[in-house]
Amino acid sequence: MASPTLPALEQLFRALADDTRLRILGLLSAGEVCVCNIHGALNLPQPAVSRHLAYLRKSGLAAARRDGLWMHYRLEMPPDPASAKVLKAALEALGAVPSARSDRKKLSRLVSIPLRVLSSAATNCCKP
């Protein structure tokens, strides 16, 4: 089991300190999402979303896989328990934010997955 280090915690808090990255993490908590659907749900330009996703990947909070021309992203939990606990708390708090729920509704319409399924996945993403 990995132990947290001060630089790792600092990097985590920096990643969580941006509203766009928090919104992206809120979408990724529901499962793997294509970058085209992320920028569609957030109504942000694709280059801006890609820049924030690159930051989340560098921070170890997101992982990607290529499918043809598209990149699909998913949430990655930090390996150390302290950082994982911080991320879980942030995602739980984000679930109560109206704008995050609105983002999830937009994503639901874009990917044709019922909102209750996405919301359930997001709520259970971090359960042990």
Structure description:
The longest helix is centred in the last third of the chain and has 14 residues, at 81-94. This protein has helices spanning 6-16, 19-28, 35-42, 46-58, 81-94, 98-111, 115-124, and strands spanning 33-34, 62-67, 70-75. By secondary structure, it is mainly α. Helix 3 (35-42) crosses helix 4 (46-58) and helix 3 (35-42) packs across helix 6. It is globular and about 40 Å long. The protein has a single domain, classed as Arc Repressor Mutant, subunit A. The mean pLDDT is 88. It has a 3-stranded antiparallel sheet with strand order 1-3-2. The chain starts with 5 loop residues before the first helix and ends with a helix.
Blueprint of the fold:
Blueprint: H1 6-16, H2 19-28, E1 33-34, H3 35-42, H4 46-58, E2 62-67, E3 70-75, H5 81-94, H6 98-111, H7 115-124
Antiparallel strand pairs: 1-3, 2-3
Provide a brief overview of the structure:
With 128 residues, the chain is mainly α. Helix content is 62%, strand content 11%.
CATH superfamily: Winged helix-like DNA-binding domain superfamily/Winged helix DNA-binding domain
Q: Which structural class best describes the helix and strand composition?
A: mainly alpha
Order of helices and strands: HHEHHEEHHH
Shape: globular
Strand order within the widest beta sheet: 1-3-2
Just give the CATH class.
Mainly Alpha
- Percent strand equals 5-15%
Mean pLDDT, rounded to whole units? 88
- How many structural domains are formed by the residues? 1
How many alpha or pi helices?
A: 7
**Unreliable runs:** none
What is the name of the CATH architecture?
Answer: Orthogonal Bundle
**Euclidean distance between termini CA atoms:** 15 Å
